[in-house]
Design goal:
This protein starts with a helix and ends with a strand. It contains four helices and twelve strands; from the N terminus they run αααβββββαβββββββ. The chain has helices at residues 5-24, 28-43, 47-62, 172-179, and strands at 100-109, 119-124, 144-148, 154-160, 165-166, 185-186, 189-196, 199-208, 227-228, 231-232, 236-240, 243-245. It has one domain: Protocatechuate 3,4-Dioxygenase, subunit A. 24% of the residues lie in helices and 25% in strands. With 247 residues, it is α/β, with parallel strands linked by helices. Strands 1, 4, 10, 11 and 12 form a five-stranded mixed beta sheet that branches. It has a five-stranded mixed beta sheet with strand order 3-2-7-8-9, with no helix packed on it. A two-stranded antiparallel ribbon has the order 5-6. It is globular.
Length: 247
């Protein structure tokens, strides 16, 4: 019988779980409770949340194809595809609550070359930590949209500073976080997917230097190399960073 990659990984998982069972003397009753827990998480609509919180960061970190360029990050459960191109880089509505934030930088190759006409697909929480289409009271598709890098590779986005927030923690995922001594807070961040036909797609998140939850991110995704300083301007604050794509 020819073993497949799926077979190899599954075999290693079974062996790893076996070692945990032996180490902690897992009983059959505890095994059944674990099965019930996963069923409860699925019934509560937390399937993606549960795996994002506990596993996705490990998968992203272990991906051997992402060795150069901007550090990749978890996609998370709040992404929506097919958002529109923005007019003049205005991600936030004129009456959007919160501190105004100007986001700027350039899209570059790993060799330092400019990349024009790259698509930057942004989404974020609002100033109360809420995501449109996932939290009540937020306008549909709010703080979601795409811009293009200019001929010199630069981009400019006008938005508001996102708030820190807790991932949903009243259901099974929150119970498990508390059981292992972790809180449910995420540092403030922007999500972005960068696409260009000549380069590998980049999915990442941008954080703000000094955020108190950077080192204890609930989903263990935040990285210091993706945390950039905020500075003040006439409108509010600004943050600048480059996005480096691999061929």
């Amino acid at each position: 019988m020819i073993k497949s990659r799926v077979g190899d990984i599954t075999t290693d998982l079974i062996q790893a779980i076996g070692k945990v069972c032996e180490k902690h003397n897992i009983t059959h009753d505890e095994y059944r409770k674990a099965i019930d827990f996963f069923s409860e998480a699925i019934d509560a609509g937390e399937r993606s949340l549960l795996f994002d919180a506990f596993l996705e960061a490990n998968i992203v970190a272990s991906d051997p194809t992402k060795t150069t360029g901007t550090t990749a990050q978890v996609l998370g459960p709040f992404y929506l595809p097919n958002m529109p191109l923005l007019d003049n880089g205005q991600l936030a509505r004129p009456n959007e609550a919160g501190e105004r934030l100007t986001v700027s930088g350039s899209v570059l190759s790993t060799e330092g070359g400019i990349i024009q006409n790259a698509e930057l697909d942004f989404w974020q929480a609002d100033a109360e930590g809420r995501y449109s289409s996932f939290n009540e009271g937020v306008p549909q598709y709010n703080l979601r949209g795409k811009i293009k890098s200019k001929t010199d590779g630069s981009f400019l986005l006008q938005t508001v500073k996102p708030a820190q927030y807790t991932i949903p923690d009243q259901g099974p995922t929150g119970i498990l976080l508390k059981a292992i001594g972790r809180h449910s807070w995420r540092p403030a961040h922007l999500h972005v997917i960068v696409r260009h036909e000549d380069y590998q797609t980049l999915t990442t998140q941008i954080y703000f230097r000094g955020d108190e939850y950077l080192s204890t991110d609930a989903v263990r995704a935040a990285n210091d190399d993706l945390a950039f300083p905020l500075s003040k301007n006439e409108e509010g604050s600004c943050v600048a960073f480059n996005l480096i794509l691999r061929e």
